[in-house]
From TrEMBL:
GO terms for molecular function: sigma factor antagonist activity. It comes from Chitinophaga oryzae. This is FecR domain-containing protein. Residues 255-323 form the Protein FecR C-terminal domain. The chain crosses the membrane at residues 80-101. Residues 120-210 form the FecR protein domain. InterPro entries: FecR (IPR006860), FecR_C (IPR032508), Ferrdict_sens_TM (IPR012373). Keywords: Membrane, Transmembrane, Transmembrane helix.
Length: 324
């Protein structure tokens, strides 16, 4: 994010006109100035303290090349910062209009021009993007992305599950779009599970911080070992602390399930083993499954564990597994 974009966003924030994605970009910018090991936004009170501290840092950064400006006055209220920022915007406009406010047009990528990479059933795929970011696609997943990141954001589109190691570019946030929510980062590593057939989307952060936005809401800012699960039908979400390694263990052929639904278990078996799982027993559909799956094993090995947990039997006919 350059100075012009930053000041425009600050001005829109004080006017209450920021979109959720723009708020997430500001949060990501604030977070990029904070190097503490603990999460900066664990609650609202702490968030306001962190915001005030980071705004001071931002003020000093954007005025560093303008020594004639008076020293910033310590604000009594958060709103004073924005009046200072607005004044700085005017001064920047007078002193540097040619550079900061010159015509600047970047066309968003068209769907027809996006490249696409897909991992088939039972296979993983590693994709290296032009900015140096690396993406591991889990089985049955698709990533769409432009040939080059020329816009203000690095936008990519995910169906399925992927682990991202994003190259750090503070001036150009990286945005992962799924069918319902978007994840905004500057440079970090995280896992997103967003198979379209599932009723939820899960984001787990391995390093750094990410912002999560949906429709008209900024849902959360997540730090290392924090996880957000978004319920698509209910439009609700839950954040919790989860060790990130288990969420992306699938890269090494191990899938760790921690209380997942029957539908999520079925999606995992279909994408990794090519078998569709079904049952007519309502009691089995209510079971929450916690187990480890080794993707190099045979499907029969997995089903023995599943049936041991549910006190049931199974049969396989033409790639369809029926539990009864």
């Amino acid at each position: 994010m350059n100075k012009r974009e930053l000041l425009e966003l600050l001005q829109k924030e004080v006017q209450g006109n920021c979109s959720p994605e723009e708020m997430a970009r500001l949060d990501a910018w604030y977070a990029s100035f904070d190097h503490r090991a603990k999460p900066a936004f664990s609650n609202e009170a702490e968030a306001e303290l962190v915001r005030a501290r980071l705004r001071d840092r931002i003020y000093r950064q954007i005025t560093a090349d303008m020594p004639d400006l008076p020293a910033p006055v310590q604000p009594r209220k958060i709103g004073l910062f924005f009046r200072i920022a607005a004044a700085v915007l005017v001064l920047l406009g007078l002193a540097g209009a040619v550079y900061f406010f010159r015509p600047h047009k970047t066309a968003p990528p068209q769907a027809a021009t996006l490249l696409s990479s897909a991992s088939p059933t039972g296979k993983l795929l590693k994709v290296t993007l032009t900015d140096g970011s690396e993406v591991w696609l889990n089985a049955g997943s698709t990533l769409s992305y432009p040939a080059a990141f020329n816009g203000p954001c690095r936008d990519v589109y995910l169906k399925g599950e992927a682990f991202f190691e994003v190259a750090t570019l503070p001036q150009q946030p990286f945005v992962v779009h799924t069918d319902t929510i978007s994840t905004v980062v500057l440079g970090t590593s995280f896992n997103i599970k967003a198979y379209p057939e599932l009723g939820n989307i899960r984001i787990s952060v391995a390093t750094g911080k990410v912002g999560v936005v949906s429709g008209g809401n900024t849902l959360a800012t997540l730090s290392q070992d924090q996880q957000l699960t978004y319920d698509k039908p209910q439009h609700t979400w839950l954040t919790e602390t989860k060790e990130a390694g288990s969420a992306n263990a699938w890269k090494e052929g191990r899938i760790h399930l921690d209380g997942v639904s029957f539908d999520e278990l079925a999606a995992i078996l279909e994408h990794n083993f090519g078998h569709r799982l079904q049952t007519g027993r309502t009691d089995i559909r209510k079971v929450r499954f916690s187990m480890n799956i080794i993707t190099s094993h045979q499907i029969e090995d997995v089903m023995r564990i599943v049936c041991g947990m549910t006190q049931s039997r199974y049969r396989i006919r033409e790639q369809v597994i029926t539990i009864y």
